[in-house]
Amino acid sequence: MASLLAVSLLARIAIMAVAMALTMYVVLGLHMSYVAVGGVDGALTAGMALGGPLLGRVIDRRGARFVLLVTVVAQFVFWLSVPALPYAVLLVAAFPAGLLMVPVPLVARQAIAAMTTAGQRQAAFALESVQGELSYLVGPPTVILCATIVAPGVVAWGSGAALVAGGLGIALLDPPMRRADEAVPDTADRPRRREWLGRPMTAVLLMAFGTTLLLAGTDLAIVARLQDAGQMTWATVVVAVYGTSSVVGGLVYGSLSRPLPTWLLLGLLGAATVPAGLAPGWPGLCVAGVCAGLLTAPTLSTAADAVSRLAPDGARGEATGLQSSALSAGFALGSPIIGAVIDASAPAVGFVAAGLAGLGGALVGYLLSRRVPVPVPVPVPVPASGRARVSALEPCGAGTQPVG
């Protein structure tokens, strides 16, 4: 477990780095607009969202090492050729690159579910969520710093090399994807999707989508709020406070003895985000960041834990892939949705919209995850004469003795 967490952390930092490296290359290397950046990032994210369940299904059938090696080769070819591609070709190539992105979070979550007991899983998934926050704090700033020193094409090569190295490292570890007591199901015996993709799983996926939509919208609202106040230079500090608080919250949550419902944590996160728009400048946003950040990693970790518990044997990879797709879709849609709200109103309203999105996701998740009571049939009274006629038709020994 220690080796898996260490190598997957480096690989996840590389994933965050390549996304920023692609942005820096389009802006600084190709001298294109941010609209062009949005096109490439959107194609990459769309590919990742669609590729999650597909790669997860292949992992269920062929194992993690096969998928890791295939995706590593695909990423090696893509990032080696990025500095030589014109924008139109890069835009088209970004989609298959996202579709075959090295599935580091998917493999790590499935391995955690296989390598831990029920009592250890909460702490392990909390550490996995902390990894996501650390990769966000380390990967993009490192790329931005390197882009100011060397050419953007070189940064793209270096980021791609780090991603390939991380994928190869996990492939060499080859962590188990199933528990030791879990049999490998035949293709004919694999559970059908409609058997496990019911109300509880749908609720978790929707809450995962709502969480990342809230986070993406919050990031955009922070930038808009500080730009409106003329304090844009403090954006890095505010984002760092959010990320550091999330790391602390994940570690604290992992030490708790009992898990909390995903809908409750998401609802608290949304409620803590709504008043951030009233914060007076960057110091107030830092205070709001502490309150909301402490709930971020716990919300993400409890969603991953819920997916691992709800997914049946033989479909855990596909279920984890759907979770990754839901997270990617939330990140992809959060910025344009909250951006439209900010453009139509004010930066402070962006926090309100992001928080309400989280509250809405929590409410829908709660309603879907509620157990539907099974109606108990009420016995219909039968007249005495009727009972005699019914019992007369029963064979001897089946119930009431026949009436002679």
TrEMBL record:
Database matches in Pfam families: MFS_1
PANTHER family cross-referenced by the UniProt entry: MAJOR FACILITATOR SUPERFAMILY (MFS) PROFILE DOMAIN-CONTAINING PROTEIN, PTHR23542
Protein name: MFS transporter
InterPro entries linked to this entry: MFS (IPR011701), MFS_trans_sf (IPR036259)
Keywords for the protein's UniProt record, in alphabetical order: Membrane, Transmembrane, Transmembrane helix
Ranges annotated as spanning the membrane: 31-51, 63-81, 87-108, 202-226, 232-253, 260-276, 348-368
